[in-house]
Amino acid sequence: MSTSFAAMDKSTREQWMVIAEETMNNQPRVAQQILAMIQGLSAITDGFSVDQMQHSLQTATRAEAAGADEEVIVASLLHDVGKLISVPNHPRIAAEILKPYVREDVYWMIATHQDFQGRHYYEHLGMNPNLRENHVGQPWFELAERFADEWDQKSFDPEFESLPLQHFAPMVERVFSRARSL
């Protein structure tokens, strides 16, 4: 069913109830689009020893093996998906995609992961490797530090046996099945 208004300021509550119901009924498409975006990362290598999809799978596999919860695992899988659009702004793009579906600490883990990961390479680029220090005292600091140091920065190993995307698909479907917030 569709609504008949041509401008939002001419809409009715009943029309918006139809839109809300249709949106909820079609929520599974979000997870399918997320999975397609992750697959799209296979086309991006940018000089690394593995493509960005393999990097994401390795990161999520490490998070799961370390006992991380489902939201953290899915965020680990999705953390670099913003590179499909903008490498310099990729952490914020991925974090904004995740924001309605994950806890605040998981959102910030992804939004700031470049600041934390910079410790491992920024000095090679003439940049400040201590940007994580700007976040000391935040309640999510330890989670972001663990993500960057134990899972993300170690996940460029062509020999690592990561779990396949199909393993993570049910988790992605559950996390993206309903928004926690708007």
Q: Please state roughly what percent of the residues sit in beta strands, choosing from under 5%, 5-15%, 15-25%, 25-35%, 35-45% or over 45%.
A: under 5%
Tally of alpha and pi helices: 9
Would you state the CATH class?
Mainly Alpha
Low-confidence stretches: none
CATH architecture: Orthogonal Bundle
Structural class: mainly alpha
- CATH homologous superfamily name? Hypothetical protein af1432
By DSSP, the count of extended strands is: 0
The level of helicity is 40-55%
Shape: globular
Largest sheet: none
Radius of gyration: 18 Å
* Overall pLDDT: 95
Calculate the terminal CA-CA distance, rounded to whole Å.
24 Å
Write down the secondary-structure element order.
HHHHHHHHH
Q: Key terms for this structure?
A:
mainly alpha; about 180 residues; 9 helices; Hypothetical protein af1432
Walk me through this protein's architecture.
By secondary structure, the chain is mainly alpha-helical. The chain has a single domain (13-175), classed as Hypothetical protein af1432 (Orthogonal Bundle), CATH 1.10.3210.10. The protein has helices at residues 13-25, 28-40, 52-65, 70-78, 90-98, 104-111, 113-117, 141-152, 165-175. α3 (52-65) runs antiparallel to α4, α5 packs antiparallel against α6 and α6 crosses α8 (141-152). The radius of gyration is 18 Å and the shape is globular.
Question: Could you give the topology of this structure?
Answer:
Blueprint: H1 13-25, H2 28-40, H3 52-65, H4 70-78, H5 90-98, H6 104-111, H7 113-117, H8 141-152, H9 165-175
Helix pairs in contact: 2-9, 3-4, 3-8, 4-9, 5-6, 6-8
